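Priority: low. Protein: Metal-dependent carboxypeptidase. Input follows.
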Amino acid sequence: MSYSDLMAYQRETEALAQIAGRLGWDQETMMARGSADQRAEETSALEGVLHARRTDPRVGDWLAGATPSDEIEAAQLRHIRREFERATKIPARLAQELARLTSLSQGIWAEARARDEVAHFLPNLSQVIALKREEAAALSQGTNADAYDALLDDYEPGATAEWIAGVFGRMRPRLVALREQVLDAPVPEPLKGEFPVEAQMRVARDLATAFGYDWTRGRLDLAVHPFSSGSGNDVRITTRVQETDPFNCFYSTIHEVGHAAYEQNIDQSYLLTPLGRGASMGVHESQSRSYENQLGRSRAFTGWLFRRMRAEGLALNLPDEEAFYAAVNRVQPGFIRTEADEVHYNLHIMMRFDLERALIAGDLLASDLETAWNDRFLADFGTVVDRPANGMLQDVHWSVGLFGYFPTYALGNLYAGCLTQALRADLPDLDGALSQGDTSAATGWMKDRLQRHGALREPRATVEHACGFVPEEAPLLEYLETKFRDLYRL
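Result:
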C-alpha cells in the first residue's frame, strides 16, 4: 500500500501547489497594488503548509516501502524522493520567509522599474540574495555541489554550472562572429506605424489558436512580464502590448503558448502528479522557443502573419511578405532580453549567468550589480545602458528568487535546435502548411515525441528520446548561421 498511499498524499500536495501558483498569477494580472502586503502573508502561510507536507516523515516511510512495478511508477518515486530530500534540508522558517519576501519584492521591483530607481529595489534584492545563499548552503550540505549548482538543480536537474559554462564557451565565438557579419550588412526596413491594442489582441488570440492553445482550459491576460502559469486543465498565459511594436505582443503570445501547450498536452493520467509537469525549465523553453522562433519566425509562417495583419486592417509600411520576414527577423543590438533577436538572445543569457553566479558566490554584491551589469553590457554589446529599466531592472527573475533559472533559456534554444532538426527531417513538406497558418503537423510532432510524456524522463533524456540523438549546440548554431546568412545575403 505504500505506493498508493504516497500517491494519494502527493496528489493533494500537487493540488495545493497549483493553488499557490494561481495566487502568483493573480498577483501579476488582477490584484490591486494595495493588496501586496496581505498577499505576501497568504503566500507565506501556504508555503508553510506545502513545506510541512513535503517534509512529512510519512513521505520518507512510504518511499522506503514503495516498490515500483513499471517505468512510470519508478519515475514518480524518483521525483518525490528528490523533492523530499531537498525539502528536508531547508528549514520551514527559511521556506516561508523566502515565499513572503519574494512576494513583496516582486511588487517593489515593479515599482523600481517603473520609476527607474535602483536604490528603491536594492534593500529587498540584498535580502533575497542572502536568503537564496542560505538556501543554497543548506541544499549543498553533504554533497559535492557548489552553491549555484544546488539552485540550478531546481530548474535543470542534472546540469552543472561547469557544464553550462562549457556549452556557452563553445557557442559564444560563433555567435559573436555571426553577429559581426550580420551587423556589417545592410539593415532591413523595420515595421512602423501605430497598431491599436484591440487589433493586436485579436491577432494574438488567433496566433494562440493557430499554435494549438486550448481555450477551454486557459485564458489570455496582460502582464508587465509575460508568463505562463499552471498545468493540466488550468493553464493560463499572458502577453503585453506596445502600440508601436506588435511583434512584442505576437511573439510573446506564441512563446507563452509553447509553454502552455506542453502543460496542456501532458498525458491526463499524470494529472496532479510529479510527472504532470515539464521535465525541466530548459525542456520547457525548448517548446516556447521552437514555437516562437523556428516555427513562428520562419519565412513560411511570417507570410501568413503578414496577410493576417493586413486582413485586420493594420497599416503596414512593408511592401511584401519577404520584407515582412526580414523585419520580423531584423538583427540589431538592444537592451531588452525578451525583445532580442535570435542572434543576440543567448549573449544576453550568458551575461546574466555570469552575474548571478557571482552574486550567489559572494563575489559580487547587490550594491555593485548595476555597475557590473552596465560594464558587462558595454563590453558584450558595445552600447551604454541608458537607464535601469533597460539594464538590471528589466527582468523579474531575481526579485522572486529565481537564481539558476536564466541559463535554462539558452539550454531551451539548444534543445529547440535539436528538436527542429529532427522535426524537419520527419516533416519535409512543413513549410507548405506553415504558409497557410497551419502548425498542426509540427505541434502534433512535439506533442507525440515530447509533450505527452511530461516529466517521465530526465531533461536531456527527454530531448534525446524526442529527436533521436544526444542534444548538443551544433544544430542550433547551424540553424542560426544558415537562416541569417541567407536573410542578410552573406
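The beta strands are 220-222, 228-231, 234-239. Residues 2-119 form one domain.
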